[in-house]
Specification:
Layout lengths: L1 E10 L7 E11 L4 E5 L6 H9 L6 E6 L2 E2 L7 E5 L10 H11 L4 H14 L15 H13 L5 E5 L7 H16 L7 E6 L2 H7 L2 E4 L32
Parallel strand pairs: 3-8, 3-9, 6-7, 7-8
Antiparallel strand pairs: 1-2, 1-4, 4-5
Helix pairs in contact: 2-3, 2-4, 3-4
The structure holds adenosine-5'-diphosphate (ADP) and magnesium ion.
The site of adenosine-5'-diphosphate has 11 residues, from helix 1.
Protein name: Nitrate/sulfonate/bicarbonate ABC transporter ATP-binding protein
Organism: Acidicapsa dinghuensis
Keywords: ATP-binding, Nucleotide-binding, Transport
């Protein structure tokens, strides 16, 4: 579905030469999977997510969506951010409707789909609230509703549970997993960035590990995980794509 070929990223540094954040990397996101990108802070996870989701361009190499170069391809993706990134001046419902509005969906359909999605994420009755009136966990539920309401082919998540307390994160994670396992989550694949190894193992079918040196993908792992969940995807024998 999404394939990166030898992508690299450099950032210009004011006082020094440019630094390489991602060294040449190949990876794919496959329909039906939850793929986790695991690595310590600063290892280049968000940079990788931005390149795969089309938010930024690689310095070298190419990202393909459905085998077309990203610039020529049409693909519906959504991103959930650690900081929720809600519009504070809009109500919960208006936040969820926003991406549908941007896509030109008519007001009635917009409203219906958004209200349904709010129910799915456990926020029935909160449509008129403003983000500041909600707890962190509820705000992230709005973030999920807003991301899922467009039925993205790939749902990207950048540390979506990191700003939440442990218990809230645990609840939200297991609810998300339940939606995914029930096949009620309207997306074909999930790409999640995390620094939490437990979270990666719990959620993912496949894990890619970024090493401590920026952009260094660890290729020295050979791990066989026994996954408790019944999944259609290939059993994975190698953590690295
Ligand atoms: P992670 O998400 O794993 O914490 P990031 O992708 O955010 O890592 O960052 C990787 C490295 O790239 C870090 O050293 C960070 O400081 C640097 N970096 C990220 N974005 C920029 C930018 N826009 N300009 C310069 N350096 C950046
Ligand atoms: Mg990050």
């Amino acid at each position: 579905m999404i394939r990166a070929e030898r992508i690299e990223k450099y950032y210009a540094q004011p006082s020094q030469n440019r630094i390489q954040v991602i060294s040449p990397t190949d990876l794919s996101i496959i329909p039906g999977e939850i793929l986790a990108l695991l690595g310590p802070s600063g290892s280049g996870k968000s940079t990788m997510l931005r390149m795969l989701s089309g938010l930024s361009r690689p310095s070298a190499g190419q990202v393909f969506w459905h085998e077309k170069p990203i610039g020529d391809a049409e693909i519906n993706v959504s991103i959930v951010f650690q900081s929720f990134a809600l519009f504070p001046w809009l109500t919960v419902l208006e936040n969820v409707e926003a991406p549908l509005k941007a896509r030109g969906v008519d007001p009635e359909t917009r409203r219906e789909r958004s209200l349904n999605m709010l129910t799915t994420v456990g926020l029935e009755g909160f449509q008129a609230a403003y983000p500041k009136e909600l707890s962190g966990g509820m705000r992230q539920r709005v973030g999920f509703a807003r991301a899922l309401v467009v039925e993205p082919e790939v749902l990207f998540m950048d540390e979506p549970f990191s700003a939440l307390d442990v218990l809230t994160a645990e609840n939200l994670r297991s609810e998300l997993l339940e939606l995914w396992s029930n096949k009620t989550m309207p997306t074909r694949a999930v790409f999640i960035v995390t620094h939490n190894i437990e979270e990666a193992v719990l959620l993912a079918d496949r894990i890619i590990v970024l090493g401590r040196n920026p952009g260094h993908i660890r290729t020295d792992f050979k791990v066989q995980l026994q996954h408790p969940r019944d999944r259609k995807s290939e059993p994975f024998t190698n953590l690295v794509d």
